[in-house]
């Protein structure tokens, strides 16, 4: 089994595969960074591990627990190693300083490449190309690992979790965060990060606002901010010039699926990740996906849970040849306020409990979440608050799964207690 990616997803998948009976010498982790652990190595703030370990850890502490276990199990990991291609027959081509250019065929592949940040090039912001424009993750690495302060007077565009956390981090390092601007009428971050990173430090959040131009030649001198309408277009006359020397971009994460696409694996147009069943297997037998390469998570604890399932399934595939391709699957679809559901396919004989993860498309209060099989509800639960920045899940027990067995499709949707769908 080859695991592409040595972050929290890849490490958890490899460890669980070994626990499931796959010998350590039959597992290989490929990590392109100089050390395994992934993005957690630069996330020095606390808040990790509350679900998985029942205690609050920093990112490096959380990663260290998996790194130590992988090392204790003698699971091989090649760092500074870049996977160049993945073929349909599960052949991986990679390059590293120690191994050179290598091509290895595997019985199973686990995709755990994580995600990348959307850059300025995707935003079409007017202006020149001065220094002082960073993605939030790049700024986080500069501050927490390299020891550099990106700027002194900062504007942040986007209210994703990394941007919110960096607003607090830069403030603690002596910079002045002037404001956070969010294009949408709601924040994309967790409510706890809004409270702890902005409210606690008096940093203003401007919803339905965006940066329309950047000023400065050698270095950022300021940005022009404008309010946007319901179509997300700047409203003339609302422009405001904000002097600053740094612009941080926290405008979304994109799953790293170039290898997935090259292999011909079916992708979900909403998540940008692979279409998988409840075993985390993709449309190609023997290739599994987990973590942020599948869909962007807000909690690493969920990444670990998902990756463990992928690792166990991959081990079963290698040891027993059980790929599930001859078993009937049911498509799971999102409707009425639900943006996407993962997994997108469920086997008719799926084992209970089965967890469905989903995100909503707006802020909602006092809704009923319904899982239906061919239009007939099999599970319902009241949800007091639902926000796009927080991934939700619903656990289906045996009774619900039994009622789904003969369905042609399953849907997940929101409605008011009176039955009206999708209202906010």
Global geometry: globular
How many strands appear in the DSSP assignment?
29
State the share of residues found in helices, binned by percent.
10-25%
What's the N-to-C terminus distance? Answer: 46 Å
Output the number of helix runs. 8
Low-confidence stretches: none
C-alpha Rg, in Å? 22 Å
CATH class of the largest domain: Alpha Beta
How would a textbook summarize the main sheet? 5 strands, parallel
Strand content: 25-35%
Domain tally: 3
CATH topology label of the largest domain = FAD/NAD(P)-binding domain
Average pLDDT score: 93
According to CATH, the homologous superfamily of the largest domain is FAD/NAD(P)-binding domain
Q: What is the structural class?
A: alpha/beta
Oligomer description: single chain
**CATH architecture designation of the largest domain:** 3-Layer(bba) Sandwich
Brief synopsis:
Helix 1 runs parallel beside helix 2 (59-72) and helix 3 packs across helix 4. The model has no long low-confidence stretch (mean pLDDT 93).
């Amino acid at each position: 089994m080859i695991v592409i990616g040595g972050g929290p997803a890849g490490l958890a998948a490899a460890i669980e595969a070994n626990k499931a009976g796959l010998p350590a010498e039959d597992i290989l982790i490929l990590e392109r960074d100089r050390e395994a652990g992934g993005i957690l190595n630069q996330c020095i703030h606390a808040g990790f591990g509350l679900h998985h370990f029942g205690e609050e850890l920093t990112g490096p502490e959380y990663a260290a627990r998996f790194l130590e276990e992988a090392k204790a199990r003698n699971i091989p990991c090649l760092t500074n190693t870049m996977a160049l291609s993945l073929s349909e027959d599960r052949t991986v081509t990679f390059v590293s300083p120690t191994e050179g250019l290598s091509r290895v065929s595997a019985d199973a592949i686990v995709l755990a490449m994580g995600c990348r940040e959307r850059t300025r090039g995707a935003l079409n912001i007017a202006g020149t190309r001065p220094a002082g424009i960073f993605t939030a993750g790049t700024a986080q690495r500069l501050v927490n690992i390299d020891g550099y302060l990106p700027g002194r007077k900062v504007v942040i565009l986007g209210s994703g979790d990394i941007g919110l956390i960096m607003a607090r981090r830069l403030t603690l390092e002596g910079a002045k965060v002037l404001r956070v601007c969010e294009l949408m009428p709601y924040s994309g971050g967790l409510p706890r990060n809004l409270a702890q990173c902005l409210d606690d430090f008096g940093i203003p959040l401007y919803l339905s606002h965006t940066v329309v131009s950047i000023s400065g030649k050698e270095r950022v001198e300021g940005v022009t901010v404008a309010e946007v309408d319901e179509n997300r277009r700047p409203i003339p006359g609302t422009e405001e010039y904000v002097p600053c020397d740094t612009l941080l971009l926290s405008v979304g994460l994109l799953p790293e699926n170039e290898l997935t696409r090259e292999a011909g694996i079916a992708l979900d147009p909403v998540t940008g990740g692979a279409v998988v069943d409840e075993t985390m297997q993709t449309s190609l037998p023997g290739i599994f996906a987990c973590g942020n390469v599948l869909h962007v998570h807000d909690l690493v604890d969920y990444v670990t849970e998902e990756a463990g399932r992928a690792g166990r399934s991959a081990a079963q595939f290698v040891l027993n040849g059980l790929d599930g391709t001859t078993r009937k699957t049911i498509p799971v679809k999102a409707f009425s306020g639900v943006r996407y559901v993962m997994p997108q396919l469920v086997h008719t004989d799926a084992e209970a409990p089965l967890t469905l993860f989903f995100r909503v498309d707006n802020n909602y209060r006092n809704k009923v979440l319904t899982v239906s099989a061919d239009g007939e509800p099999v599970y319902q639960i009241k949800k007091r608050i639902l926000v796009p920045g927080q991934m939700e899940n619903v656990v289906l027990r045996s009774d619900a799964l039994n009622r789904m067995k003969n369905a042609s499709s399953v849907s997940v949707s929101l409605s008011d207690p009176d039955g009206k769908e999708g209202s906010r």
